[in-house]
């Protein structure tokens, strides 16, 4: 039974954000398809080079367009976005070109990542089984957010759809790999978090003196092969910025 006055949201939707923004939303919740649609449409809008568009970026399930309303009116931008939306099924569209696969050596558990056992238990796995699965899983950079250069990664299998902690961890270090709600976050800088700390890497994601300053891009993929603490320490001594991480191009 529908509530009086209730209008069900229909996706994809196009909405204004203040005077200079417009957002295209594909779903209320994250899925592989909704994130794929956001990444693909974001890349397509960038390729259009519409006069008056100043910035295009994607979130987990949406695309934000910042524009100059004096050069490109709201109605005109809405029409352009609508035409692009109906041009194909974005939930099955190819992801943007130029993506990379990063392999990031990771210590799971130990004193460096003390909440692995808790996460494994919540997922119904042994620690060894959790490490085996997480170290072999490839995840996508769903979006960059919360802090400069910091990726949300996933989506993971639903066994990893575990809740956030009731209280914050006061601080995890740069390079910490944390998990919750079927996603992972790789921390760009030391930070408090409500997500559980399962792995520790030596990678530096935010490099303000470099161009670009963000190491990762939305659509990149990552894998976190397991190493022990001594191996990670040795990798970091060789390259304190990457900690043994390496990248290769993804052929779409």
TrEMBL record:
Keywords: ATP-binding, Hydrolase, Nucleotide-binding, Transferase. The keyword Protein transport does not apply. GO terms for molecular function: ATP binding; hydrolase activity; transferase activity. Residues 12-216 form the Carboxyltransferase domain. It comes from the Bacteria. This is Carboxyltransferase domain-containing protein. It comes from Tritonibacter aquimaris. The lineage of its organism: Bacteria, Pseudomonadati, Pseudomonadota, Alphaproteobacteria, Rhodobacterales.
